[in-house]
Each structure stands twice: as structure tokens, then as C-alpha cells.
Amino acid sequence: MSGAAGRITAKNPIVEMDGDEMTRVVWAMVKELLITPFVDVKLEYYDLGLPERDRTDDQVTVDAADAIAKWGVGVKCATITPNEERVQEYKLKKAWPSPNGTIRAKLDGTVFRKPILVHNVPPMVRSWVKPIVIGRHAYGDMYKSAEMRIRQPGKVELVFIPADGSAPQRALIHDFTQPGIVRGVHNLDPSIRSFAKACIAYALSEKMDLWFSGKDTIAKIYHGAFREIFRQETEARKADLEAAGITYTYLLIDDAVARAVRSPGGFLWACMNYDGDVMSDMVASGFGSLGLMTSVLVSPAGKFEYEAAHGTVTKHYRQHQKGEPTSTNSTATIFAWTGALAKPASWTRRRS
After folding, report:
1. Alpha helix ranges (H) inside 31-129
2. Which residue intervals of 4-76 are DSSP H helices?
3. pLDDT digits (tens, 9 = 90+) for 316-335
4. Nearest to 287, CA basis, from 113, 116, 112, 120
5. How far apart are CA 227 and CA 39, in angstroms?
6. pTM of the complete model
7. What are phi and psi of 164, to 5 degrees?
8. Average pLDDT over residues 55-72
9. What would the pLDDT profile of 216-232 be if each residue is shown by its tens digit?
10. How far apart, in whole angstroms, are the C-alpha atoms of residue 99 and residue 19?
11. CB atoms < 10 A from the CB of 351, how many?
12. H-run or E-run covering 178
């Protein structure tokens, strides 16, 4: 079909990242039926399916992230983040990290998830009449954590050893007298600031009020740093926000959840990494389905990666393997492709 009359030509390459299970099957169908016959686009292909990630020691994921940084736009299929059961099932060398986490960290990106509203799928939450967009901080927290299983009595401390050789700082986490667990998490001021700036820019572009939620009453230093940086960045853009008629509100996470359920929608809800993971699924279900949720990773350098917000649909894949019919919703996958194709970095023109 290359060069056929009426076919649309993309100016620049798009990074294509294949995935796993039923979404991989759907991915191939969408590409074959809806993309290739109508769009002439150079696709720089990376197979992020679990077997290829294992074969390359996950280097293929790093290469894909570098390609997005080079070309500016990528589109990604859903992938498996393996647990121990998956390690055994696929006979993996190890439990490889989340490809999404690796790509987010490489691009220092913020993930924005937005429901796809359709008339024949009314929201489960009756008060929601406008989209609620989740802005998820794409760095740190439990996704870059260190964990330990404690099996005997002893103390666990948080220790900072300054590079200049000055005295270490210590904080007691817990004095264990019985078995337990412990986790250490971190974040970086520049990453939080990039997150805040990205959320402000998105709110301005979409003319949406901006919320940020945390729990600084408990995590006074960790969550408090997020709150303070958001305050600084929104103050710096105060004139722009006021000119656009946009308000910024900080809320405790529990208050934000209660308000969101009663709200008509129409706002951007900025969340820390884990909160964003959870709340995006809640919002998706409230609007109808994870299959009706777009997801775009936006980097401070203006690089974009589009994907469906749902997982690999394992249940349907098991049915597919048995030759049974399935009803996997392809809408979000289609929107991922069209989102990538519509970006300025890959603007399109119709052949004469």
C-alpha cells in the first residue's frame, strides 16, 4: 500500500513498542487493519514482550526509551511486569522491572491519564459529567524502593552518609522484636519540580482546575516537600493561572477522594506515583472501563509516549490460546495510536 493515493504520510518516525498477551494480539490487529492501510509511517520497532526483555537483559527497554528521546514520539503496547509466578511461567533469568517505570525514569516524564467518554457507556459515578484527568508523578516512591524481610530481632535505621565525609545522619525506623518487613523510598527535588511544571502546563492547555493531594499531616517531610514545591511553582505561574481562570488546590488525599466522587469532574488531579497508579484505575472504572482510558507520558523536553491505560488482559489471552472467542476492548489501543500520529513531531499530510 506504500504510496497509494489517499494514504496519509507521516513526516517523522514513531517508536513502536510491542507488548504481551492479549494486548499484543489486539496490537497486531489494530496495526494491520487500521494503521498500515491508511498511514505511511516509518516505525522504529522494539519488542518489549517479556521473552525479548529477558533475552536482552532488558536492554531493549532502555533502547526504546532512548529512541523516544531521539524521535520525540512513541506508542506502546501493554507489557507484563513479572512477579515470581511469571518468572517461573516464562522461565526468566529474573523478575525484570516494569518497562513503564524504566521508560518514565529515563525520560523524567509525567503520566496523564484521561477517560474516553462515549454516549453508550455512562459513568458509574453519576455525578461525573466531565473527564477527570490523573497526572501521575513518574519517578520514585515504591517503584524505586529497596525492601528487606526482617526475620530476627534488631534495629533498622535510615542512614545518610554525606559524600563530603561529614557526620552521617540517622533515624530509627523500627526496633524489631519479631519478624516483619521494611522498605526505603526516595524522591528528587528536580523530578518533583518537573512534575509540578508539567501539571501546570497541562492544566493551562486544557483549561482545567488543578488539584494536588498528599498526606503531609503524616509524612511531614516527604509529602511536605511535594506540597511546598507545588506551592512554589503555582505561585510562579499565578498570573497565567488567573488569566486562564484556573484554580490550584492542595488537598489531603482522603479529602480529595471524597471530593472527587461528589464532583462533576473537569479537573486535573496531580498525584504522587503510587497514588496516581491507584486513582487512575479508580477513575477509569468510575467512567466505565480501563479499556476507555488514554495514557500519555510527557517529558520536560517535550517527548511523548502513548499507550492504553490497561494491562495485558491475561484472562482473555488464556481464552485466545484455547481458540475461544474473546471481547477485548481495543478502543484505548486505537486512541494510543491516533494520539501518537497526531503529535506535531510526527505531523501528517495526505498524499496527492
Report:
1. 50-55, 59-71, 84-90, 99-107
2. 21-30, 50-55, 59-71
3. 999 999 999 999 989 999 99
4. 116
5. 44
6. 0.78
7. -85, 5
8. 97
9. 999 999 999 999 999 99
10. 10
11. 11
12. none
